[in-house]
Amino acid sequence: MSGREIGAGVISAEPVLRLEGVGKCFRLYHDVNYSLKERIINWRKRGYELFWALKDVDLTVYRGETLSVIGPNGSGKSTLLRLMTGILKPNRGKIVTHGTIAALLELGAGFHPDLTGRENIYLNASILGLKRKQVDQIIDEIIDFSELGPFIDNQVKNYSSGMYVRLGFSIAINVNPDILLIDEVLAVGDASFQTKCIDRILRMQREGKTIVLVTHNADIAASISDRILWLERGEVKMLGDPREVSEAYLKAMRTRPEGSEFGTREIVIEEVEVLDGAGYPALKFSTGDAITIKMRFRAERKVEDPVFGFGIYDQMGLMVYGTNTRLLQVDIPWVEGPGTVEFQLPKLTLLDGRYYLSVAAHTRDGQVNYHWLDKLYFFDVQSPGRESGYLAMDCRVALRSGE
Predict the structure, then answer these.
(1) Of the residues 210, 307, 356, 386, which has the fewest C-beta atoms closer than 10 A?
(2) Under a CB-based contact definition with an 8 Å cutoff, are residues 231 and 69 in contact?
(3) What is the H or E stretch that residue 123 is in?
(4) What CA–CA distance (Å, rounded) separates 10 from 285?
(5) 101-104 and 179-182 beta bridge pairing
């Protein structure tokens, strides 16, 4: 793997985590002895079987890379992260790491319940190798990011799950690790804090940090990762391009975003087509191509002053672009029976990615939805690779010397 540019960050060819033939097994006991007497009597009789949580995993994570790990429950995702941190040791194979590691694992991991939030900051940071003077320099930033405010001097055993996440994530990102490992615990926080965490992850990417993220949300993984690892029953099912892996995973899990449909159905959108510049149905476009969104509808009765519109969304569900006939100042006095509406974009300015399409018919004030098809359609865009982000813009460079 050669170094390549991702926005402002660079992925190096230098490995920082290497797993070679790694396997991890646990004993699953058949009988449970609840009393000391039962343990003494049955200590030789107790049967068990070996459960291999991970089997022969080969993986290299490169400096500056963001790798997401997805998979169903019990696939070995969290076990993999614990092996990377050194909390668990493999039964087979070996793991080599280069650089300091900070990990955000299950709720409360590394916290002493009888200590306050402030005291646990010092405790966690010391485990990660920081001295008290170093923590003194960053503790205000940790507290500010966590938004715990007056609760920071309360015992953490009185914290909610969301407060645990806030404190743990704030510590992990502010000790300036070379490698950040994050388990599914981000799903516990509220929406605003999740957004804040993702923003900080994006900033760390720009700073060239290495991030390994375990998540059930394949869409988020596809949006922020350089590669995705799909684990299935302890084995590597797929590893590679984020979009390809996430789509294959969602299809296999039967949870591929199918969107939703609702409305009074006084107007029914019967068919939606995404067309290329020649008017043919297409799902793949290049930046700069023409694209048309065509809707065939039927009004069961005469509907006055309707509005038709569409929205384009990224894989995280954020609107990238949207418009409608009202915003475009196209008045439709009334519709009845069958009809079509076409939105023509002569030059698609979107960059690389998979985009989801919503279409709708509603009243002018937006209070009544006749028919709304939310993210039921998608198309892919490939760009030349000269820009990062969502949009291609006309950017020109002027270089002068002697000024």
Answers:
(1) 386
(2) yes
(3) helix 117-127
(4) 27
(5) parallel
pTM score of the predicted model: 0.59
Give phi and psi for 295, each to the nearest 5.
Answer: -120, 130
Q: How far apart are CA 117 and CA 377, in angstroms?
A: 46
Q: How far apart are CA 93 and CA 78, in angstroms?
A: 18
- Residue in the structure block whose two tokens are 């004030």: 365
| Separation of CA 291 from chain center | 28
Taking only the tens of pLDDT, the chain with its 403 residues reads: 333 333 334 567 788 899 999 999 887 665 555 566 656 655 555 566 778 889 999 999 999 899 999 988 788 888 898 899 888 899 999 999 887 787 766 555 567 888 898 898 888 777 767 788 888 888 898 898 888 888 899 888 888 777 877 888 888 778 777 888 887 665 555 667 777 777 888 888 888 889 998 887 787 788 888 999 999 888 999 999 888 898 888 777 654 455 678 889 999 999 999 999 999 999 999 999 999 999 999 998 999 999 999 999 887 778 899 999 999 999 999 999 999 999 999 999 998 888 999 999 999 988 889 999 998 888 989 888 777 778 888 888 888 887 6
> Which residue's structure tokens are 């019967």?
270
> Which ranges in 128-207 belong to alpha helices (H)?
132-146, 161-174, 191-206
Tokens of 140: 């205000």
Helix (H, G, I), strand (E, B) or coil at 276: coil
CATH code of the domain occupying 4-253:
3.40.50.300
Q: Where are the domains of the chain?
A: 4-253, 260-382
Q: Is 342 helix (H, G, I), strand (E, B) or coil?
A: strand
Domain spanning 260-382 has what CATH number? 2.70.50.60
CA-to-CA distance for 66 and 58, rounded, in angstroms? 17
Which pair of tokens denotes residue 59? 């993986």
Cβ–Cβ under 8 Å, residues 359 and 388? no
Closest by CA position to 181, among listed 73, 111, 105: 105
